[in-house]
Design a protein that fits this description.
13 strands, alpha/beta
Amino acid sequence: MFRKIKLLISFMLITMLLLVTGCGSVEGDASNDSVEEKEVDHLTIGFSIDSYLIERWQRDTDIFDAKIKELDKDAEVNLQNANGDIETQKQQIKYLIDKKVDVLIIVCIDSDSLSDVVAEAKSAGIPVIAYDRLIKNADVDVYLSFDNEMVGQLMGEALVEAGLPNKKVMMLSGPNEDNNVSLVESGFKKVMSDNDIEIVDVYHAPGWKAEDAATYLSEHLTELEDVDAIMCGNDNIATMVNRTLSEARLTGKVKIVGQDADLEACQRVVEGVQVMTVYKPVEKLAQTAAEYAIALAKGEEIASVTDSMTGTINDGSYDVPYCYLSPIAVTADNMDDTVIATGFHMKDEVYMNVTN
């Protein structure tokens, strides 16, 4: 009997020992997994954009992602789309900060509303790139864009060259919250002033909503009686404006210009319906952003970029590094040499409605 009890106790001790050893083994595996996760050494890049409702942002992010993979095949891009809502964008940026991205790129919705969250990123040691739109009072590491005053200037010059017999134009711009809008308007207004052309009305579409611009135009069609042209803040607005003009049987009578070289806009240009669109070589901008993102993520100095102008720009509180590219006025005369030659759009797509 005593021998049986002794054997039973021995069996229980061995079983307990095995269980303890097993638990220790599981904990050890979990610990190893945790260490391996921490030792994963690849760059993570956070990219917060305004909204894919604007055609060009999909193109920008596609080019950016491709360039990142070319520069570092192991780098990861975490893309967040705010759908035009500033509060959503703030929360998404905070999410990227919590994810401890190595660098943060922002296409801001409201130039005045992101200084606090950018400060959070910088406090966390995350470099910040303001992409295309300046973030005010934020002291970003670099601001990449185009010469936006020149964009407005090109729009104005194209209309003047096309002829404005009544010397009256209307402006349907983007939102005041976008810092680029005021710069574009400044360039446009200067050309109008230099040529004694009256700006009879200005409307700012909230959140770049082209439908709102079209609705405003529909409600003010009587003002178009002697208006020669409409400056549209971008080609998306120009598309909706063209539809409104068509419904009012004013196509061709009222000239329009836009920017971004959207496909529909390029089609209208070669069809003679839109005077011009401003082509901004986003390929270069997105590729430059990728180069800067990798450099900043690695703690390296960002070098000046070929074919771009560099300097500083005041964001309201700080002088921040500024790299900007030159925009190009695209008309029916140079469509083949610009938008098509660079592969931005295919020739058969641009000319699909042109029979001659």
